[in-house]
């Protein structure tokens, strides 16, 4: 449970976002340890929480000292994201989907950032959007259709091929800059995107795309 102070600060983000203003002070908000406890409680029970990335650091061993160390490194600018460990899982069509498994500390940082980003963007998303959002799913989309739709002539089913692996980093950062006026927070997100990945213990730089299996994807499918 978040403290009253942190909740008020997060609610302020909601209000500013609805007003269409750019938001600052996000990196400073990450210095509050209570936010890291919330992040840990959100993801520690995930199926892949104890899965190792490129090192042996997992979600196991969470402590005040561990959080304090991460926050200190973030403030000093010495925190470095590890490359994700790329694995492949089979898809129903016989092909394989790449997953990126992050280090345990990186997962914590990602979840704290996700909590803040959700406060910025969730209040301004369209009510008709049900994909990858908390407490929304294909089931809520079907419920809306049943309760609100009177008739329908066409339903268009589309799938963007290789979407996650082709997202433009530059375009994504420009979109974030429209709502966020905090250079350190934006730089942190850019560092996540640029961390690269290891496949068969060979490093690959990432100039586009985001890792599938990330914290945001895991959380949105569970809420």
How do the helices and strands line up, and which of them pair or pack?
Layout (H helix, E strand, L loop, with lengths): L3 H15 L7 H4 L3 H11 L20 H13 L7 E7 L5 E6 L2 H18 L16 H11 L14 H4 L2 H9 L5 H11 L3 E3 L2 E3 L10 H8 L1
Parallel strand pairs: 1-3
Antiparallel strand pairs: 1-2, 3-4
Task: Provide an overview of this structure.
The protein is α+β, with helices and mostly antiparallel strands. A hairpin with a 2-residue loop joins β3 and β4. The model is unreliable at 216-223 (pLDDT under 50). It contains ten helices and four strands, in the order ααααββαααααββα. The relative contact order is 0.16. The protein has a four-stranded mixed sheet, with no helix packed on it.
Q: What is the C-alpha radius of gyration, as a whole number of Å?
A: 18 Å
Query: For the terminal residues, how far apart are their CA atoms?
Result: 16 Å
Q: Helix fraction?
A: 40-55%
Total beta-strand segments: 4
What spatial form do the alpha-carbon principal axes imply? globular
Strand/helix succession: HHHHEEHHHHHEEH
In spatial order, strands of the major sheet run 2-1-3-4
Structural class based on helices, strands and sheet pairing: alpha+beta
Q: Roughly what is the average pLDDT, rounded to an integer?
A: 88
How much β-strand is present in the residues?
5-15%
Unreliable stretches, pLDDT < 50, 5 or more residues?
Answer: 216-223
What descriptors fit this protein?
10 helices; about 45% helix; alpha+beta; disordered C terminus
